[in-house]
């Protein structure tokens, strides 16, 4: 078991201040935007994970120079139409759905066909949801089984705008179309179900011709052709999705407290905070500030004496879509029955996460009732596991691995968790922080 790990001791009470890695969504978007800027852009605290490194490799294959060291990344952008590459180019998005889907919006005007591939997990994910709207600009895509990677992009240099209804709440679909609109004639209009809005905020900060009008359930986004992007520097804040593991750890522990420093608290990303507050967890934002349009703060979490069950409003789903495995864990310890619905989008992630959430809780001894898009969790506040649990064959989904670690530390038992290298895609320092907390450092 060279790539597995065993946990068999519950964590003791802790009171710590920690810093987690840079935000993955912002890191990847910074790399892509910088590649189209006219000049040198610099980033501090760029997440050094496999997903972000895959984005850097991708723009380098597209002819963009990158200098990378431990503290600073420099991207030497060549302008909105500056990609230069030879025929028969293959780009590898590896495990990153964000990279694989967003980059397609930048490639729809390519003069030569480009092949996009990914790893085993990404190759099982639906790319038709991206290529269908992008093809309306005038580009053409050939996909494996009309849905999956590998795919071939056949660009069009005479792109036309169109109107797009995005009703899945997918920031990746929305962002890809925004990028396509930036390269197309006319005005592209998107009516988008609420989802994370890092792309729109970056467009606003860069003063690009992208306008957003928000109402209760949808955003109306208008995009005009972009002539130039100015180079820009960015100090990447900490990732809320990475922070969520320690928020959950504290929520499930006794007499514990944690402060996670300088975290991005974009309102479209903090569904887990809203949900956990409803379940009785005390969470406070401190030292709030606005940086380049994004809201950042220190997050202070105090472990609750009692966790309450929740009938979770579906409107909170998109803001917590990457954190539901952790939310399910917390529901497992809550008093009463929790219900989560309209979660089909969970199975569009690195693994079928709704199924894996159910599987992990069942292994723990928690009663669950699961459908294709919902889960009912019968909480047990007194659960203390005294058996061995093995977690494997989960398509190397980093969030399944890290969620299993949190479960082992808070519910007990002996956990044998495979594919520990999976965390390299998003949070390489995860186990270092866990070990510091376990050892009281």
Biggest pleated-sheet summary:
4 strands, mixed
CATH architecture verdict of the largest domain: Alpha-beta prism
Distance between the termini: 28 Å
- Count of helix runs: 12
* Spatial shape: globular
User: How large a portion of the residues is in β-strands, by DSSP E?
Assistant: 25-35%
Which strand order do you get reading across the main beta sheet? Answer: 2-15-17-16
Counting helices, strands and paired strands, the structural category is alpha+beta
Number of domains: 2
What is the CATH H-level superfamily of the largest domain? Enolpyruvate transferase domain
- Which parts are unreliable, with pLDDT below 50 for 5 consecutive residues or more? none
The top level CATH class name of the largest domain: Alpha Beta
User: Percent helix among the residues?
Assistant: 25-40%
Please name the CATH topology of the largest domain. Answer: UDP-n-acetylglucosamine1-carboxyvinyl-transferase, Chain
Strand tally: 22
Mean pLDDT: 96
Radius of gyration: 21 Å
Detailed description of the structure:
There is one protein chain. The chain is α+β, with helices and mostly antiparallel strands and 441 residues long. The protein has two domains: 4-22 and 237-439, Enolpyruvate transferase domain (UDP-n-acetylglucosamine1-carboxyvinyl-transferase, Chain, Alpha-beta prism); 24-230, UDP-n-acetylglucosamine1-carboxyvinyl-transferase, Chain (Alpha-beta prism). The chain contains twelve helices and 22 strands. Helix 3 (97-106) packs parallel to helix 5 (171-182) and helix 7 (240-252) packs parallel to helix 9.
């Amino acid at each position: 078991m060279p790539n597995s790990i065993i946990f068999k001791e519950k964590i003791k009470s802790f009171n710590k201040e920690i810093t987690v890695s840079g935000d993955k969504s912002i890191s990847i978007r910074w790399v892509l935007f910088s590649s189209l800027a006219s000049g040198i852009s610099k980033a501090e605290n760029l997440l050094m994970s496999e997903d972000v490194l895959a984005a850097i490799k991708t723009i380098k294959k597209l002819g963009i120079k990158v200098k990378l060291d431990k503290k600073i990344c420099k991207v030497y952008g060549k302008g909105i139409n500056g990609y230069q590459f030879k025929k028969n180019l293959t780009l590898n998005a590896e495990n990153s759905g964000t990279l694989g889907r967003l980059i397609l919006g930048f490639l729809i005007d390519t003069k030569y066909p480009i092949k996009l591939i990914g790893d085993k997990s990404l190759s099982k994910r639906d790319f038709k949801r991206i290529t269908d709207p992008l093809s309306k600009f005038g580009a053409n895509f050939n996909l494996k089984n009309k849905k999956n990677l590998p795919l071939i992009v056949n660009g069009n240099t005479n792109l036309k705008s169109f109107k797009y209804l995005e009703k899945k709440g997918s920031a990746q679909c929305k962002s890809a179309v925004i990028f396509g609109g930036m390269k197309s004639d006319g005005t592209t209009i998107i009516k988008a179900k609420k989802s994370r809005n890092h792309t729109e905020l970056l467009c606003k900060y860069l003063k690009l011709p992208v306008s957003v009008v928000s109402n209760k359930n949808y955003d109306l986004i208008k995009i005009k052709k972009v002539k130039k992007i100015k180079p820009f520097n960015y100090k990447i804040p900490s990732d809320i999705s990475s922070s969520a593991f320690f928020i959950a750890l504290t929520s499930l522990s006794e007499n514990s407290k944690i402060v996670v420093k300088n975290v991005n608290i974009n309102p479209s990303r903090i569904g887990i905070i809203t949900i956990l507050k409803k379940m009785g967890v005390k969470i406070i934002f401190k030292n709030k500030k606005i940086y380049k349009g994004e809201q950042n703060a220190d997050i202070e979490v105090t472990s609750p004496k009692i966790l309450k069950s929740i009938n979770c409003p579906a409107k909170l789903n998109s803001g917590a879509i990457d954190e539901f495995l952790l939310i399910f864990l917390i529901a497992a310890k809550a008093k009463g029955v929790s219900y989560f619905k309209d979660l089909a989008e969970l199975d569009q992630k690195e693994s079928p996460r709704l199924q894996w959430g159910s599987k992990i809780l069942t292994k723990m001894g928690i009663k669950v009732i699961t459908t294709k898009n919902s889960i009912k969790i019968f909480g047990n506040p007194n659960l203390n596991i005294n058996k061995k649990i093995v977690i494997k064959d989960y398509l190397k989904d980093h969030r399944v691995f890290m969620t299993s670690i949190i479960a082992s530390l808070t519910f007990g038992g002996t956990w044998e968790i495979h594919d520990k290298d999976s965390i390299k895609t998003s949070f390489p320092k995860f186990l270092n922080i866990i070990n510091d907390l376990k050892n009281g450092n």
